[in-house]
Amino acid sequence: MTLNPRKAPVQKRSKATVNSILEAAAQVLGDKGIAGFTTNAIAARAGVSIGTLYQYYPDKAAIAAALSCEVRAGMIARITCAVELAKPLPLKCGLHLLAEASIKSDATRPKFARWLDELEAQLGLSGAAAIPLDRYLTELIADYLETKFPGNSRSVLTEVADDLRATGGALANAVLRRGTIVDDNTVSKIVTVSLALLSGSFGRLS
After folding, report:
1. Rounded to two decimals, what is the model's pTM?
2. Given CB 3.0 to 4.6 Å as the disulfide criterion, which of 15, 126, 185, 202 pairs with 120?
3. What sections of the chain are H helices per DSSP?
4. How many Cβ atoms are within 10 Å of 117's Cβ, its own excluded?
5. Tens digits of per-residue pLDDT, 125-167?
6. From CA 203, how far away is CA 181, in angstroms rounded?
């Protein structure tokens, strides 16, 4: 088992092929779960031969790792954008934007998100490999908090940001484990809990 692709696509056509393989993989995982997540099923869904798939990915673990990277990159892009949009807004509105950005992939494809979480755990992608992403997201949220709670040390802001990130993730994961939809109700719960956490950390909110 290897988590690295065989080669990176260079030409426009090969990039399109890889994109179709990854999209097919996401669909197969969402529809059939881990048991049905096979290279043959992915190749068939993508409309490519198994030989073409193996040109880019040696096994399904490498495809799962690529999916995980794609989801993480999307999350970073969304939250980076959300932080900038949230800074001039009232606190509650800003938290709503951040919560929506953080769970967008879960809300769009809840079954895929749940199975990908389990697959990441099996492959060790949710442990040490996730630490750099977690730290980066925590720093982004700390940047946002710095605009809302000036005068606090960076270490305090980072600690609170880490709590916010972990709490929001736990709520979203709980919804996924129950097999229910990550929706506006989930966002509202995350915002409510976040406001309570911030109040406990910084005192009365304006």
Report:
1. 0.76
2. 126
3. 12-32, 39-46, 50-56, 60-86, 91-108, 110-123, 131-148, 154-177, 184-202
4. 19
5. 765 556 677 888 899 999 999 999 999 999 999 999 999 998 9
6. 33
